[in-house]
Amino acid sequence: MLAILASIGVLLKISPMGSVFEQRTIDVLVKGQGTKVWDESGKEYLDFTGGWAVNNIGPSHPAVVEAVTTQAATLMQTSNAYYTIPQLQLAQLLVDNSCLDKVFFCNSGAEANEGAIKLARKYGRLNKNGAYEIITALNSFHGRTLAMIAATGQPQYQQNFQPLAPGFVNVPYNDIEAIKAATSDKTCAVMVEPVQGEGGVNVPSESYHKELRKWCNDNGLVLIMDEVQTGMGRLGTLFGYEKFDIEPDIITLAKGLGNGVPIGAFMSNLKTSVFEPGDHGSTFGGNVLTCAAAYAAARIIIDEKISQQAEETGEYLAEILNELKSRHNNIREVRGMGLLRAIEFTDDLSPVVVAAANKEGVLLNAVRPNAVRMMPPLTITKEEIDVGVARIDAALGNI
Length: 399
Ligand code: PLP
Prior knowledge:
Layout: H1 2-12, E1 29-33, E2 36-39, E3 44-47, H2 50-53, H3 62-72, H4 85-96, E4 102-106, H5 109-127, E5 133-137, H6 146-151, E6 168-171, H7 176-182, E7 187-192, H8 208-219, E8 222-226, H9 240-243, E9 250-253, E10 264-268, H10 288-303, H11 306-327, E11 331-337, E12 340-345, H12 350-360, E13 362-363, E14 365-368, E15 371-374, H13 382-397
Parallel strand pairs: 3-13, 5-6, 5-7, 7-8, 8-9
Antiparallel strand pairs: 1-2, 2-3, 4-10, 9-10, 11-12, 12-15, 14-15
Helix pairs in contact: 3-10, 4-10, 11-13, 12-13
This protein binds pyridoxal-5'-phosphate (PLP).
């Protein structure tokens, strides 16, 4: 039956996701637990993509399943004119554990960024003579809606969808002078990722975010950090901004926030919290079912200090990957932070490496033609890292 469904999916060409550089050999996954997933033939894989940086405590985590099941049997949706307990609990938990004061819940990362941009533009309208322009980085990724492809500084996501939404200026990442040069009296905000994920796992210099924070302070600009990929523990701290010792004005979250249920959020400090009722809204934003699931997942990440675990296992992964590099001279560089890591090759090998790794039983992402990315569950063990990297080693030996 599953095989039939799988072939129907292939025949109907259900729109496949994934990176533009991907060359996958598996089409249908049917089960997941911890770091492992299984395809319809029963073959087991170590998922070094973590369900695309989502399954931070593993897919179908029992606490999340329990929260979804209980909530589904109680109340699945309310009019969004009313608060719900899971929504309030989640908001309080996020506020208590961040430098931000308010939360707006939505359904995805792109939507969280759209909300953050609206908030920054309203701030510009009220406080900066109607300034509306947002500076973002080349090689960034902020989502696939019309405005977010304009924010995303990668031509391959933009070229087929012209004209782009106005009001975004893309400058090189990790280049504070480029931000200074792009700032004008039209600028209201800068939006960057703490570490670029989809752009190839690009870690900025230690001083970049600090200098950016100072520039924003000196010029009255809103600093937005897109933490859709880095938030909820991925870099080894609950939020990525903590790694760089700064406090942004707004952050956006999704992916690991729901650990498998579709939820996003943007959070702001009091200074930038300028929305009034009616400025923004979403029928399913703050939905009680997704909030209950996200609250269960976030409680575990916070109470069980999962980000600290990610810091430690992330260092271990880096060590093991550097050993791998010493055995393969087609590896140019290993880079990343926490459990967001990449291997860069000397040539455009990543599609074949991903396919070979799939065969060996490990899922990877071809984030660039010459680089593969790893973003496994934050609960991955050192033993699983050993096994996964041994499989990648074998895959590299086979190509
Ligand atoms: N922002 C960042 C940093 C991302 O990595 C992503 C997705 O990969 C997004 C935004 C878009 O999130 P979503 O796919 O949930 O819209």
